[in-house]
Structure formats: C-alpha cells, structure tokens
Design a protein that fits this description.
With 336 residues, the chain is α/β, with parallel strands linked by helices. 33% of the residues lie in helices and 14% in strands. Strands 1, 2, 3, 4, 5, 6, 7, 8, 9 and 10 form a 10-stranded mixed beta sheet that branches. Helix 1 crosses helix 2 and helix 10 runs parallel beside helix 11. The N terminus and C terminus are likely disordered.
C-alpha cells in the first residue's frame, strides 16, 4: 500500500562529503560495486514554462500545446518536473549520479545546448558543468558520475562542441575509462568526474568518455509493479560495471486522465514509504543480485539519499551481497 503524501524537502549537508568518510576497507572497491545515490532527470527543477515542446514528443502533444496552451502547458509542467533541488543542492545532499538529458533546440542557429524533459530548461549545459566543477573544487574527495544522454537534435558538430566543453571544464579531473575507479585510485590521481556518453561513436574517439550506463527503467505507474520489475531485473543479473536501478514511477495518458488534479510529485511522494523499504533491503557488490546506483525523483524528500549511502555499511570485503553476515554493524561512517 502506498503511503500518505509527504511534502517535506530538506538537504542533509552531512552527506556532502560522504565518500571521503567511507572506511578505508572500501577504498579499493570499484565504484560500480558500491551503492551510489542518483537523481533521475536531474535538471527538471529549471524547466522553462515558456519553452517549445521538445521535438522528441509526439506531434499530438505539440499540436495541443500550440492551440490550447493555457490547458496543456500546466499539465506538461506538472508531469515533467522530477526534481526541486538545484544541482548544487543535490550534490550537497549526497547525490553522485546526475542524469543529464541534453538537447539542441530545433531551428536554433546558436551552439547552445539545453537539458530537456518534455520542454527545455532555462539554463544551458555549459553553465551547469561549471557549477558542478565549482562544487567539486570545494569537495576534493567526492566523485560524480555525469550521465550524458538523449542528445535530441545534436549533430556531429554539436557533439564535438559538447565534448570539447566537458574536457575544457573538467580537464585533469576526468577519469579515463581504462581506469578501475576505486576511491583510492581516484584520490591518488585527482580524478573526480566520470562521464558516460550515450553515443558509441564519440566514446570510441575519446578515452575520457565512458560507455552509456544501463538504466533499469520500469515504466510503471504503480509502486508494486515497479518493485516487481526491479526484482526481475536483479534475478537476471546485474551488469558487470556501472548500472542504475531507477525507482522512479512513470505516468501515462490513462493515469493522467484518471488523476486530472495530480502531478508527478504527488505520484512519487505517495510511493516513497514502499520504495524506502525496498531500498533498505538491497545489497551493493559484484554478485548477481547486487545493486550499484539507485536513482529517484524528488531526492530531497524522505531519507532516500541517506538510505542508499548506508547500504555500503553492508559491505565486508571480499564482496558477498548474499551473506547477511556481511558485517552491517562493524562498518560505520564517521560523520553520517
């Protein structure tokens, strides 16, 4: 049963440096075998209500928005916003996987790139990358994964522009993909950024880019069905390296029509009690049914980020996510 609607939003600043506070016995474990909190559709907190509808959306949505904007636009906004915290606030809250859906506006002669989810953001990609760098410079032992995805409207020239911006901004903080990304290795070399790029041709050209990170997207409207999907994916076995278990629910037209006064936020917050139980039952590690990144919507609500971080207390090398005797009590965080 889904729980009552929760509305509190808070940033737990204690989580801002959680990686630096992990016990030394976890420093040599690859990041893809640790538990990392992520945000789904990271940049939707700054969607532009006056923006054109993304070219990725159906022609029907575009037509309805054009002729009935007063009705359609508020609905689009209610079901497009998945986060309310800024990117800096998300990082400070402990999020270490950022889901960047990048796009170029149709008929825009400039090289400006935006984030997108139904509509485009008010901010450009380059400014947010600088914002992430600014945060990293004051948190030298934290590592962030930037998942660059979607690429609606990007041609070869725009891909080159985006990759050049990434290299210019992060420079030596970029971790090459041939490195096994343990915390000890990252700290020794000053690496703080792992960029996954959902365009194989570009990845092959640049050693600083990592392949696209698989995202387990349930595409479900009910919490129970989403958890069933995630459990089925676990039984099939986790990928060898980074992957995301998405605990985000997804609306469809039928659901929206049945909930005319609802929103994605209402839908998400009611699901949190059940999803919280599921998250706390997970184990990070290399074994078949272990998890890695868990990403959600409205990450400032409830204790989602803290719960995901604390799953790392279950690790007791050598990794064995099935053993409940893995020492959940003998590994502690110094400041969580």
């Amino acid at each position: 049963m889904e729980g009552p609607l929760q509305t509190s939003v808070h940033v737990c600043h204690e989580n801002g440096r959680w990686m630096s506070k992990l016990p030394e016995k976890l420093w040599d474990i690859p990041l893809y075998n640790l538990s990392l909190p992520g945000s789904h559709d990271t940049m939707t907190y700054c969607l532009d209500k006056n923006s054109a509808v993304s070219g990725n959306e159906s022609k029907l949505v575009e037509i309805l928005n054009k002729f009935m904007p007063c009705i359609v636009r508020p609905i689009i906004m209610k079901w497009s916003i998945t986060q309310v915290l800024t990117v800096t606030e998300q990082l400070e809250a402990g999020v270490r996987y950022l889901d960047f859906r990048i796009a170029h506006k149709a008929n825009d002669p400039s090289m400006n790139l935006y984030f997108v989810h139904m509509v485009y953001t008010t901010v450009v990609v380059q400014d947010i990358l600088w914002e992430v760098l600014k945060w990293l410079e004051t948190h030298p032992q934290e590592v962030v994964i930037l998942a660059c995805r979607n690429f609606d409207g990007l041609n070869k020239k725009l891909h080159c522009h985006l990759i050049a911006c990434i290299k210019e901004i992060f420079q030596c903080k970029l971790c090459p993909r041939n490195v096994v990304p343990t915390l000890r290795t990252m700290w020794q070399h000053g690496y703080q950024v792992i960029v996954s790029y959902e365009e194989d041709v570009e990845v092959e050209k640049h050693c600083e880019l990592w392949p696209a990170i698989p995202y387990w997207w349930g595409n479900r409207t009910s919490t129970h069905a989403l958890i069933q999907y995630l459990e089925r994916m676990k039984r099939m076995g986790r990928p060898e390296k980074f992957f995301v278990a998405g605990i985000n629910l997804t609306e469809n037209l039928r659901y929206i029509l049945l909930h005319p006064f609802g929103s994605l936020k209402d839908m998400t917050l009611r699901s949190l009690p059940c999803l919280k139980i599921w998250v706390r039952q997970q184990y990070p590690g290399a074994q078949k049914e272990c998890i890695n990144i868990i990403a959600g919507d409205f990450i400032g609500n409830d204790d989602f980020v803290r719960d995901v971080i604390e799953l790392n207390t279950k690790i007791n090398p050598p990794l064995d996510c099935h053993s409940k005797a893995a020492g959940t009590n003998n590994i502690s965080f110094s400041a969580l």
